[in-house]
Amino acid sequence: MNEMFTKAMARNIFYGGTLFFFLLFLGLTFDTMTVVPTRSNDNVIAKDANGKRTELGAQIVQGKKVWEDNNCVGCHTILGEGAYFAPELGNVYVRFGNSTDAIKAFIMSRPKNGIPGRRSMPQFNLSDADLEAVAQFLKWTSEIDTAGWPPNIKG
User: Fold this and answer.
1) Where is pLDDT greater, at 116 or 68?
2) pTM score, two decimals?
């Protein structure tokens, strides 16, 4: 390259790069806006036995409340959000063999004061209704179309 790098060349590179990335941004925004509405909202609005869309079940809402009241997100992540102290729970229903009973049994099996010298989930002494609600909430989160998140079954 025998010629010298001039101000005009730098300006043209700047303007050209700016225009390129602005057009790229618009293209990606347009693509996102066309893809998002085609995703299924069946997991956000539940369906009844006849396939009719209904509001989110009261049990799932109660499970979310129990989740928040016990600060589960302080240790766990759910769909990638939260603390990384304990496992991801966005796919725990699948990990436990598509069984809400297994989730409830695991929560109930936690020792009262934890395991000495080891990090472990505390015993929250949830009622049967709250246990079922949390299990239904975790089942519901596992059915959300997350476009492949978490990347593996272990979370």
Assistant:
1) 68
2) 0.65
For residues 46 and 139, what is the distance between their CA atoms, to the nearest angstrom? 12
Neighbour count for residue 88 (Cβ, 10 Å): 21
* Closest to 142 in 3D by CA, of 106, 88, 104: 88
Pairwise CA distance, residues 29 & 32, whole Å: 5
What SS3 state is found at 36?
helix
pLDDT tens readout for residues 70-82: 999 999 999 888 8
φ, ψ (nearest 5 deg) of residue 82: 125, -165
The per-residue pLDDT for range 106-142, each reduced to its tens digit, is: 999 988 776 778 888 888 999 999 999 999 999 988 8
Angle at 150 between CA 148 and CA 101, to 5 degrees: 110
Task: State how far the Cα of 109 lies from the Cα of 40, in Å rounded to an integer.
Answer: 35
Cβ pair 139, 133 in contact under 8 A: no
Pairing of strands 81-82, 77-78: antiparallel
Please tell me the distance from the alpha carbon of residue 136 to that of residue 123, in angstroms, as a whole number. Answer: 19
The beta strands (E) that lie in the chain are given as 77-78, 81-82
